[in-house]
Amino acid sequence: MSEFLLKPRICFGQDALSALRDVSAHQALLVTDQAMVKFGLAARVTEILGERGIALQIWDDVVADPDIATVVRGMKLMDSRYPDLVVALGGGSVIDAAKAVIFALAQTRPDAGRQRPCFVAIPTTSGTGSEVTSFSVVKAHAEKLVLVDPSLLPDIAILDPTLVASVPPSITADTGMDVLCHALEAYVSRAASDFSDALAEKVVQQVFRYLPTCWRNGQDLQAREKMHNASCMAGMAFTNASLGITHSLAHALGGVFRVPHGRANALLMAQVVAWNADFDGQCDTAAAHKYARLAHLLDLPAHTTREGVASLLVAITALKDEMNMPAGIADTGVDAIEFDRRLAEMVAQALRDGCTPTNPRAPDAQALTELYRQAWIGSAVHRHG
């Protein structure tokens, strides 16, 4: 027996933020970061809550890749004036921090008899899909830990494209490639289903069609809306089907060398697609056939499975190049000697990562080491006709 969970309620399109006016509460906690305060986006939320006469506490210093100390800070704040509404406004790090705080406080204070607050997630990047997933990533020392629990799912997701219009091109590229990676990995996951496949296929088409436009012209609200919806649909796919080793390798690379998560995925994606497809061998795996199907959906040459996989690999690399993304890990400023020194540590982290068991092809340390080495120079595709 399998299941596919559909939650939360999703409010989308221009003016989606007005959905906050329908949420009833007495005491709210707004979880956000300094960028949201600076750009005036936090004020848009506080204004709506203020109009409703809702008492408000603000936690606005969440940083990228929240660690356990950050979560504890948030728990203390939430505990001091326990809210019946939590609003997370920001990128994946902010939403993940809010999730971890709600979850950890419920775990450590189960005797308090307090109701779980209504949880509203408002993403301001089109990337993680965290607003519709039961996943939260928290950093402990140099390792990213993936929490997975159904209680981490928000109750309401608000997808307003006006909130992402000011995201700069480099972050648009990083987060957009994260969306593509979520769809590709959910699509070939061991836990994939008809339901997750339908979402993943649509996401891949929308990313290739609309991400370059968002990168070139951030104020194009139609393209922004399409990418914002794609990010959310990719989240719906992977919260049900899980992910694969691109994410495992990216979590370790990001944890050790602080490479932004979407960029880390972009650096590793083509190598993992080629390896899952057994591109240098028979190219006849179940994943290879699914990748070829995606190439066909993108109207790329796919008369044979190998040609389809090759087309997809070329398309991924071309998308990265079009947005001036680094070709290999070497181009991101990571020190070569340090990379070699910490390679075994990253491989060990990736092997025990929560995303590894659902990868379509089971990796060993040698395979992951080789994938990192390929990604170092960016030698994605060994061209086969």
What order do the helices and strands come in, and which of them pair?
Layout lengths: L8 E4 L14 E5 L2 H5 L2 H11 L3 E5 L8 H13 L4 E6 L1 H17 L9 E6 L11 E6 L2 E6 L7 E4 L9 H20 L5 H23 L4 H21 L3 H13 L3 H16 L9 H12 L7 H18 L13 H17 L12 H13 L8
Parallel strand pairs: 1-8, 2-3, 2-4, 4-5, 5-8
Antiparallel strand pairs: 6-7
In short:
The chain contains 13 helices and eight strands. By secondary structure, the protein is α/β, with parallel strands linked by helices.
Rounded to an integer in angstroms, the radius of gyration calculated over CA atoms is 20 Å
What is the architecture of the largest domain at the second tier of CATH?
Answer: Up-down Bundle
Global morphology:
globular
Helix share of residues? 40-55%
| Total helical elements | 13
CATH superfamily placement of the largest domain: Dehydroquinate synthase-like - alpha domain
What fraction strand?
5-15%
User: How does the helix and strand content classify structurally?
Assistant: alpha/beta
Largest sheet: number of strands, sense, barrel closure: 6 strands, parallel
Strand order of the largest sheet: 1-8-5-4-2-3
Span between termini = 41 Å
Give the number of domains: 2
Low-confidence stretches: none
CATH topology of the largest domain: Dehydroquinate synthase-like, alpha domain
Q: Indicate the mean pLDDT.
A: 96
**Number of β-strand runs:** 8
CATH class of the largest domain: Mainly Alpha
Multimerization state: single chain
- How would you spell out the order of helices and strands? EEHHEHEHEEEEHHHHHHHHH
